[in-house]
Amino acid sequence: MLKYAIACAALVSNLVFAGPKVEMETNLGSFVIELNQEQAPVSVANFLKYVEDGSYVGTQFHRVIPGFMAQGGGFDQNMNRAATYAPIQNEASNGLKNNAGTIAMARTNDPNSATRQFFINLVDNDFLNYNSRPPGYAVFGQVVEGFDVVQQMAQQPTHTVGRYRDVPVENIVIESVTILK
């Protein structure tokens, strides 16, 4: 009976702390990301702002490096920068790790410069973690369905477009982004 009670408590605990889920549909297929509001509230709120305003739609995964990551959300199909809100505070010290399948905020050399661009880790990238090399890159969720679609992105041929390297030859376009109920 005690084992049953512990199992039920664990299940309820997981349901209570499960974050919002977002489905991202691309021209290669769709995947679902579960966001971690508890450990990355600033990054999650920022990401959801772009989801809710619809501005991720029509952007592309513009930087894809096999054995590393797929980055998107910041450029349209012609490599024009998308408009951004103000940069956010870096939450890389939140304890979440840049492991395979996690999503993190992209930023410049300024730790507090993340706006709309994100990347999905294709492998464990420990060197991006806060404890490995502060200030680190803030993880705020993980792909819970369709990781094979993200892995397929890394199989696409890439080239250089202007000053941008590792750009897929065929655009990988975000066609819709939906918050799941």
Automatic annotation (TrEMBL):
Annotated signal peptide: 1-18
Keyword Chaperone: no
EC number: 5.2.1.8
UniProt keywords, alphabetically: Isomerase, Rotamase, Signal
MF terms (GO), sorted A to Z: isomerase activity
Top-level taxon of the source organism: Bacteria
EC supergroup of this enzyme: isomerase
Catalytic activity: [protein]-peptidylproline (omega=180) = [protein]-peptidylproline (omega=0)
Domain named PPIase cyclophilin-type: residues: 25-179
Gene3D superfamilies with a match to the protein in the record: Cyclophilin-like
Function (record text): PPIases accelerate the folding of proteins. It catalyzes the cis-trans isomerization of proline imidic peptide bonds in oligopeptides.
Family to which this protein belongs: Belongs to the cyclophilin-type PPIase family.
Protein name: Peptidyl-prolyl cis-trans isomerase
Source organism of the structure: Vibrio panuliri
The organism's taxonomic lineage, starting at the top: Bacteria, Pseudomonadati, Pseudomonadota, Gammaproteobacteria, Vibrionales
